Each structure stands twice: as structure tokens, then as C-alpha cells.
Amino acid sequence: MTAPTSSRIPGTPGLLRTINDRAALELLLDSGPLTRSQIGDRTGVSRPTASQIVARLEQSGLIEPTGSVQGARGPQATQYAVRTDVLVGLALDVVPDGVRASVVDALGRTLGETTVTSGPDRSAAADVRTARAEACAAAGIPVARVAAAVVGVQAAVAPRTGDIALVGELPGWPRQNLRGHLEDVLGVGVRVENDVNLAAIAERDAGRDEQSFALLWLGEGIGLGAWLDGRLHHGTAGGAGEIGYLPVPATGVDDSVNVQDLVGGLRLVELCARAGVPGVTEETPYAAAVDAIRAHAGSPAVHDLVEDLARRVAIVLQPVVAILEPDAVVLGGPTGVACGAALAETTVAALRATDQRAGTVVASAVPELAVLRGARSVVAQDVRTLLLAAAGRPDHPVVAPPVPG
């Protein structure tokens, strides 16, 4: 009987070098500075091979010596660490009046940040170029080292085309092929993502350990981010979670016709004025009303506001819980953060008064810059992938290796 033959192709020396180099670089990213011997021991290669790996990675400009440690026997050994500044990512949160931006490395560390206020002649190109230049200047890193970007927008983003729809106030930004437009401007790969989806990623990074949760974003606009079975749910055309447009059945609460009318920014201001939150009238800007809620937390007026708002949030959550049945619902956005645990607890009580299973409702664990923090997380992973892809190519250094002393 003839023995079966394998269809696998033996690894070529070049392929094996690349695999070894990437394994070593990934080890250094995860573990921090290591010596040649430690790299060899942890990757399972011989010490001569480990020395060759270190030489190639250093020649590529991906690692550098960072000091020395005393070994168990013999002289001190040099430690090596990843040069995480050679490729960095740009995280952008696009808001009605400008852009918040951060430069981050492959470890997710923020190296520099800025906030750009847009003028009356606003354009997407001017916004992102200015944000990149200012954030890189704050980080002390050349603009040319930005290798990827993630952009959060208040819109539904079509995954295949990069088109955006259901857009709020965003003058000067194209609706068609936004991703392609930004890639042309920045000269790097760009991900364009819905802002609430990025906020959901920030919630996951803040310690949510459920397999599924839904983030209800309560702000001037209303949105829903769904983290299901370990991944974001986008929908076919990127419109999943645009819950603000969902019609509201007759509830007897007021004359609301959709979710935005029921719990959006304008309604919150009205509810604050009705409850007597100090300093709030129906003409007060939304942001000022949110500040007033924070300032008077625990007061009778804010208690009344929370009671009214919770009944409304329960109406919004009934179809969400019925269809998705997530392990938890998180109340985020400026309104959700300002009202905090009190709104979450009161919403659960309101849900229990219905036929709908209440489930777990909690306050957001990300009180500030949730969208930007989510964008940082995603772009850091993209930069890590690019760094690993650069390993094993000593003839094509990412940047020139550092000049000794």
C-alpha cells in the first residue's frame, strides 16, 4: 500500500526567517525588552538563530538596544525593545465643530493629541491634514510615520463602499466614497467607522466581559452599538444601530414620533426644564443642560428628571432586548454618563413593569472621549499588524536604524 503524500510545501529559508522574525517581534511587543537568549528560549530557536533574528530586526529599524541586564553567568547581556515610534496610527473623532485627534503606537499608548476647530470653509481634507499635523507635532513624530488611520463619524458607514448616510451636522465632508477620499488625502489605509460602534469598542476595552452587550448612546443624537458574540454588528449597509429613526408606538408619554424625539438632546433639555433642574430653560443648549444635571446630581429635580427619562429609555430598550437579548445594556453618551447609575437602576425598574425581560442595565464605564478611545484601540491593532508585516524584510527598512551613541 502506498503511503499518502503530503500536499504541504516545505518552508523555504526566506519564509522561515520571516516567520521567526515576526514571532520574535510579536514576543517583544507582548513581553517588553528581552535579551537574545530570552528571545531564543521563548521562541524555541537556537541562540545563533536568535542572534540572527535580532540582527535582522535591528537592521530593519524595528528594534533597538535599550540597556543591559546581568545574566546568571558571564557578562551583561543587551536587552532589545520594539521601536514603536517607527509606525504609528492616527485616531480621529469627527464632531460637528471640528476633530479630536490622537497619535497612538502599536501598544495603544497615546503619544500626542489635539483638538481642531473647523472654520466656515470646512473640508474633510483640511480637517484631517490639520489634525494629523498637530497631533504628530504634539507627539514629536514625523507625519510620514503615520501608517494607518481610523475615523469615527456621526453617520452610518457602508462597509463595502465607504459611503456615509444618515449624517448629522458635517459640512464639507463628502457622503460618497469617504474612505477613498481620506485615503487619497492621507496616503495611508483608512477605516471609517460609526461613532457609537467605536464607543462600544471602548466599553469592551474598559472591562466588559460579556459575550454580547448593547450600548445605547444617549446624546444630542441617539444610536446603538451592538457587540454580539465577540464582534461588532454593522448590518449589510452599515446602518445597524441607527435607532434614532425608529418610530415610537403610541405611549401616552408625549407627542414623540420616533426615538430621537423621545430621548434625544432637544427632548432632554425640555425634560430638564420641566423637572426644574436649576439653570435650565427650554432654550438652554444641550451641553449646558448636561452640565447642569451633573452639577445637581442627587437633587429632587434631577431625581424627577431621571424618573421621567427612565420610562422613555425603557420604551427604547424594549425592542432592543426583545430582538438581541444581550447579556447587558450599557447607557452611554453625554446623557447616560451624566445620569449615571441612577438612570440605569430606574430603567431596570421601568422595564420590570412591562412584559419585557429586564436583563442587566448598567451605566457606561467610559465617561469621557469614548469615541476617540475606541478609534485609538482599533488603529493600534492596525499598526501592530503593519509592524509585524514589516518583520523579516531587512533589505527594506521601515526607517533607518538608530545611529549608536
From TrEMBL:
Signal sequence residues: none
Domain called HTH marR-type: residue spans: 23-73
Protein family (similarity comment): Belongs to the ROK (NagC/XylR) family.
Protein name per Swiss-Prot or TrEMBL: ROK family transcriptional regulator
A Pfam family annotated for this UniProt entry: MarR_2
